[in-house]
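for the recovery benchmark. tokens below, seq after
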């Protein structure tokens, strides 16, 4: 094997390693976002169960006592933002997996049925009798 051929093989595997690392990084980001979402949901549940008019909230490095309705609104907004970030990250991971599969010469996610979208509530209502 010539040095040019061995360099091509090394470059090929280096690119595979880079693409694989991007996929793993995206999956790790999904795990972290999900943990953050669960903690926020726990906080929402605790505020609902406490029944207090005011709740303590940590903003940055400061604890502030705010009306519970304000805290609930802020936490619900955070959950919505996290959901958007999770969907964006899922889409990015799918794109990275597609790039990896394309580089390996394998069929992409569309061909294998992994690019399916969930039914919307409107679509589901049409299917119900």
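predicted aa per position
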């Amino acid at each position: 094997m010539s040095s040019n051929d061995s360099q091509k093989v090394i470059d090929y595997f280096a690119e595979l390693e880079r693409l694989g690392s991007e996929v793993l990084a995206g999956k790790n980001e999904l795990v972290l976002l999900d943990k953050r979402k669960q903690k926020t949901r726990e906080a929402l549940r605790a505020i609902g169960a406490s029944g207090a008019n005011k709740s303590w909230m940590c903003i940055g490095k400061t604890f502030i006592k705010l009306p519970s309705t304000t805290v609930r609104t802020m936490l619900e907004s955070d959950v919505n933002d996290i959901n958007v970030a999770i969907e964006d990250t899922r889409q990015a991971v799918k794109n990275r997996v597609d790039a990896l599969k394309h580089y390996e010469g394998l069929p992409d996610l569309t061909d294998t049925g992994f690019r399916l979208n969930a039914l919307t509530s409107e679509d589901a209502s049409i299917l119900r009798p």
